[in-house]
Input
Amino acid sequence: MFAAIAPSYDLNNRLHSMGLDQTWRRRCVRLAELAPGDVVVDVACGTGDLSLAFARGGAARVIGVDFTYPMLRIARGKPAPAGRAQPAYHTGDAMRLPLADASADVVSIAFGIRNVARPEAAVAEFFRVLRPGGRLLILEFSQPTNPVLAAFYRLYTQRIMPLTATLIARDRSGAYRYLPRSVNTFMDRRATLEMLGRAGFGACEAHPLTFGATVVYRGVKR
Output
């Protein structure tokens, strides 16, 4: 499904977020509080936008991991900013990362945790690869808490966006019908924070963005 929409993925992201998707990623990078020498693992990296944002933010090394090779092929074609290290991209499963224990300072996943078969297994894997004091950042869609905004959000994501995105992508896989449903059926903010706590993360926080349409969850490995 994600292979089918890879060629138009960036275009649909920009159009249907009205350009805000890059703003959300930059906020995620700021919340990571990068330090010199930090190694970042960007899981479900897709076409590499968040990986490149971490490179711009000053990460010493960025490793992008994704299950879908056509997404990675696009990511590898995007150059890093001048003077920054090019992210290294690898095919891999969020629930079984090809990385050593305590090998990363930051782990991120943007708009991907709800597509993992067992999110708790993925979060446990993120905990494993982080060093003590390492930060986990999860950027994900959410439901606005304001009733009027929530009604508009449902209309846009469930009626308008699936139609226009499918037309732009010329998609027959049903990806843009599945994706809005996956937002509605995924765990809410409280449940997500509880999942991080059960995995061993401390200082767990939820940072709503754009009236709560997206949230950055942050946790620190004790």
